[in-house]
Amino acid sequence: MKLYSFFRSGTSHRLRIALNLKGIATDYVAVDLRVDEQQNDAFKAVNPQQMVPALDTGDKVMIQSPAIIEWLEEKHPTPALLPADAEARAHVRALAAIVGCDIHPINNRRILQTLRKEFGANEDAVNKWCGTWISAGFDAYEALIAADKTRGRFSFGNTPTLADVYLIPQVESARRFKVDMARWPLISAIDQACGELEAFQKAAPGAQPDA
Fold this sequence. Notes:
There is one protein chain. 55% of the residues lie in helices and 7% in strands. It has helices spanning 10-22, 41-46, 65-75, 86-103, 109-119, 123-147, 162-176, 185-195, 198-203, and strands at residues 2-5, 27-30, 54-56, 61-63. α1 (10-22) packs antiparallel against α7, α4 runs antiparallel to α6 and α4 packs parallel to α7 (162-176). It is globular, with a radius of gyration of 17 Å.
């Protein structure tokens, strides 16, 4: 399989974590967003949306990290990224959606480039923009995991789940945009626990060949 990825892309990062947790190796194909390589015709032929990640299975090219991760969970159910209980699965999916639906989409590169180019935002303004939405999402995330009295070392239970797959790249992004993580001690502890696992270490932006 080929993974089209950019080292600093949060969506690519989350997919790399999921692949590593499932023990699935891929050939890494770097797409350099810094020079808008995703807009080239060659990559447009891979993904008409011109966004990373994309996963070429040999039979099909899949796009959109949520869809690819769900496919991985269905095709490679062990180790599971979702708990068995329906209510617990809904809880984990909700945590993931805080990041995937409400934080990341309004902080991704094309939004920030629009703020810079069309609205004249400098880097301080961009960081403030990102910090606003990261903080709102992390406040909710922290409250939800604090209310879970049976929670272990991770966002749910004692093994990584879909929630952690989404959370950790967003923590990485928060640091890049100079957000003080001290405000969320539980999230910070989860980040530390995940950082001890090889699957997360190997997926980190700095560990990628295009870093």
